[in-house]
């Protein structure tokens, strides 16, 4: 019996190759996209699961961020014995790393990530397999460090995993900090937001960052500093949550008991956009849900496409079915045969889908930021997923056509009138399926247009400062900036130079409170602000408008600040001039300072957030960045020559450090990379949905043409022209698309409005977006059905009416 089915399937495919190819293409596109999305979702969900205590690790949060005062970890460990382990972490990303064997320098490179200062508890909280040395003991004393296997190989040329040879050698960081390597650990896989490569004793942070002080300041926080706790027992977690208000009260006073501190599960760190992480990439759960939904609907669309194409073939297979029934074939046998055909088409489509998925993943590599591949050996669950998809698609796509075709009347089929049999009166169902298909494609097209418009809006929105023709770089030694600035200003093509903590939208921020010291403690409100250390050239270089007062001077380092409009509003001043001369006490350095100037608000964060309060102050120890602005109208050649001149001066001033710079406009554009990537993903999947829908429409038009062959013949005999016949088909198609549009519009409007709510500054979803989405779908529909409609409309009426 099975052999008979296989032979029949082979002959069917041989007789109708176009039917096979169209169905395979539709299913392969749907299954291929679902495989790609499965691999992406599976990759993202695997973050941090390599840690043995994954479900029992929590990050301590501080208000609306994960930034933590340095003493938090030690205080938690000292105050609460039920906390199993505490990890203080200060992730400094990178620097100039040099490896030494004795007095001989082996390697020297600049690193952008991997450098971390941590307490010994980091190896009790997280799982970093030891390859040499005792990791916790290795970082229990200052000037000690442990290194990853990747950096051990990179910096010490370790071969054959003989990592013991690294122990006792030295690493220097920025030529200012020297540590002894006392252990080697296996680096985490790519699915981590803790990309540690060199772990240095926490107290050595003072040798790297002068603002660390004695590490006991509760008023200053940094986005680089996090605190994690291990709570193996659920009751311990509840105990700590209950204790955190008292903890805040103990170290901040009565007014700060509230919800200052909280706990965030490690499983949430990679997915919560409200908090940052050391991997600098957050995957919003909603995006994963959206991708899963897209995969599901693309599979549904592919199944609908299969149903329409299969039932459109009914008239061509009517006599075959009639003969089988006349010779004693049962409905059950016919259904089995058609399901077998669907199964084999699905299997063939699945093989094709794997090839398509591999191509898509290769193209998506830059978009995703990581490389995935279709490998059943490395990803055995992919095989399980694929088998499940094959079975479900076979049933979903094959069941209805098998029921319809097996019900054909043998008498009517053998007389060639199968199209009028009761079993093929499902035009309404097929139309409904096509409406559903195009509802899916219109949702994706509409979503793509909204994301593209929002991304363009973010890039074009005024930020309150100049960002063009500006480069930024870090400064390794603040004592050299005066002479360095003078020399660089003399370079041809350079307009201005400023030294500061960072550009307005840089990730270098120092968050602290400030308040009016004249207001009684019980009546005053502590206001949070972004404190930026800047020099006297900062305002002019970025063209930030000074509304009242004067600019900062070097003599103001301990006595004066410039406040933004939002900052003075927080203090109760309605006019910039009224704020001049007011005093504030800052948690930044606990000094009382005078407001000597007020600047127009500018964005210190991306446009995901509203305008924040900003305080500018002159503080040279935090001039970590140098900002250089090229002369107005400088050509690319002049700018390139100027950069070469700056690099020459840099090498003379800092011979041990590499001159590495970035254009500010590119850095700002990178803050919206996730939106651009989302737009590209939407565009890809929307295009595939539209293509699958076009195949489905082709099937519907083929079915309608077969159903209405004699009607077309009669109309043409009565004088109807080819154009009238085309309009008859296209009118029905346009009607179906309009129904899909009416259903899709409110749905997608609600979805995209919810997405836009994540932005403090957003577009209004206008009427043009709806019209554009409908126009795209209509154009694709008319093009995809044009050939089959023309074929039916221009057919000879004699051929269709001959049997009447």
Which key terms come to mind for this protein?
alpha+beta; 27 helices; 6-stranded mixed beta barrel; about 800 residues
- Gap between N and C termini: 40 Å
> Which sheet architecture does the biggest sheet show?
6 strands, mixed, barrel
Strand-pairing-aware structural class: alpha+beta
Please give the radius of gyration in angstroms: 34 Å
Q: How many extended strands?
A: 21
User: Beta-sheet strand percentage?
Assistant: 15-25%
Strand order of the largest sheet: 2-3-8-5-7-6
Poorly predicted ranges: 418-425
Mean pLDDT: 83
Q: Number of helical segments?
A: 27
Helix content: 40-55%
- Tell me, briefly, the overall form: elongated
TL;DR of this structure?
This protein is an alpha+beta fold and 804 residues long. 50% of the residues lie in helices and 16% in strands.
Structure description:
There is one protein chain. The chain is of the alpha+beta class. It has a six-stranded mixed barrel. Strands 13-14-19-16-18-17 form a six-stranded mixed barrel. Strands 12-20-11-21 form a four-stranded antiparallel beta sheet.
Task: Please specify the SSE layout and strand pairing.
Blueprint (H helix, E strand, L loop, with lengths): L1 H14 L1 H29 L11 E6 L9 H8 L5 E17 L2 E15 L3 H4 L4 E3 L2 H4 L5 E5 H8 L13 E4 L3 E9 L12 E4 L3 H4 L16 E6 L3 H19 L8 E5 H4 L15 H28 L1 H13 L4 H33 L1 H4 L11 H27 L3 H5 L12 H34 L9 E5 L6 H9 L4 E7 L9 E6 L11 E7 L4 H5 L3 E4 L10 E5 H6 L5 H4 L3 E4 L5 E8 L14 E4 L7 E6 L5 H18 L8 E2 H7 L2 H35 L1 H9 L4 H35 L10 H27 L3 H5 L3
Parallel strand pairs: 3-8, 5-7, 14-19, 16-18
Antiparallel strand pairs: 1-9, 1-10, 2-3, 2-6, 2-9, 4-7, 5-8, 6-7, 11-20, 11-21, 12-20, 13-14, 13-17, 15-18, 16-19, 17-18
Helix pairs in contact: 1-12, 2-10, 2-12, 2-14, 2-23, 10-14, 10-16, 10-23, 12-14, 16-23, 16-25, 16-26, 23-26, 25-26
